[in-house]
Specification:
It holds the Pfam family ABC_tran. This protein has a single domain, classed as P-loop containing nucleotide triphosphate hydrolases (Rossmann fold, 3-Layer(aba) Sandwich). It is built from nine helices and nine strands. The chain binds adenosine-5'-triphosphate. The site of adenosine-5'-triphosphate has 12 residues, from helix 1.
Length: 234
């Protein structure tokens, strides 16, 4: 039996309410463990596409298959479970929980998914794994780890969000411009670490940015305009 693609989009169409067609994608796929860079200018629909892949948005037509599941056919709770079990999502706004510690923010997906918890080492090893990931991403030391997430710099908050996406080695990590707050050196190092950690767990990675200079870090680079026939964005 062949493994289904991690992401398989077929004849996908999406428009925001009363807006023109923003996305019209005949075909796009990402294979197991593949690390793909998706570039497009601001406003071209990258975040919208990630929302469709994560199952938080629904297309007007077409198929969004993620890890062999038709996202449009799954019930809301099943989509939530698939996301918690097998996806790591890094949003532009990070979505950190202000009243949780750094480590608790990182282990959050494991509270919603027992399989993710087991994959991260089980209850007894969960915090250690969060500390390991944070340390790999340059956040270590008791004083730093004890700080409220609201007091971290934007670059530090990004790293917490990345550690949260990586924990438990999900099959797919989708990342929305997670390097925008970093200088060039920090950004390159950061992408290398993200790649290394994704490689360690065999996670596929879909990384979107407007910054074409990042393309060399990935197995494959795709311009949104190459796969999208719609001209509704910019
Ligand atoms: N919730 C929404 N309701 C209506 N329109 C939206 C919504 N979110 C985004 N849009 C519109 O969809 C288009 C694409 O936005 P999107 O955020 O997907 O682009 P992007 O390529 O990710 O941009 P950026 O690089 O600036 O993040 C824009 O015209 C935007 O105004």
């Amino acid at each position: 039996m062949t493994t289904p693609p991690v992401i398989d989009l077929i004849d996908l169409r999406f428009a925001w309410q009363d807006g023109p067609t923003l996305l019209d994608i005949p075909e796009f796929r990402v294979d197991t463990g593949e690390r793909v860079f998706l570039r497009g200018p601001s406003g071209s629909g990258k975040s919208t596409l990630l929302g469709l892949i994560a199952g938080v948005l629904e297309p007007q037509s077409g198929k969004v298959e993620v890890l062999g599941h038709d996202m449009t056919a799954l019930s809301g709770p099943k989509r939530d479970a698939l996301r918690a079990d097998r996806l790591g999502v890094i949003f532009q706004m990070f979505n950190l929980v202000p009243y949780l510690s750094l480590v608790q923010n990182v282990t959050l997906p494991c509270r919603f998914s027992s399989s993710r918890r087991e994959a991260a080492g089980g209850d007894s090893k969960l915090n250690d794994e969060a500390v390991r990931l944070l340390s790999r991403l340059g956040l270590s030391g008791d004083r730093l780890l004890a700080r409220p997430v609201t007091e971290l710099s934007v670059g530090q908050q990004q790293r917490v969000a990345v550690a949260r996406a990586l924990i438990g080695g999900p099959d797919l990590i989708i990342a929305d411009e997670p390097t925008s707050a970093l200088d060039a050196d920090a950004r390159d190092r950061f992408i290398e670490l993200l790649n290394e950690e994704a490689g360690r767990s065999g996670s596929a990675l879909l990384f979107v940015s407007h910054d074409a200079s990042l393309a060399g870090h990935f197995d494959r680079s795709v311009d949104l305009s190459e796969i999208n026939r719609a001209k509704g964005g910019v």
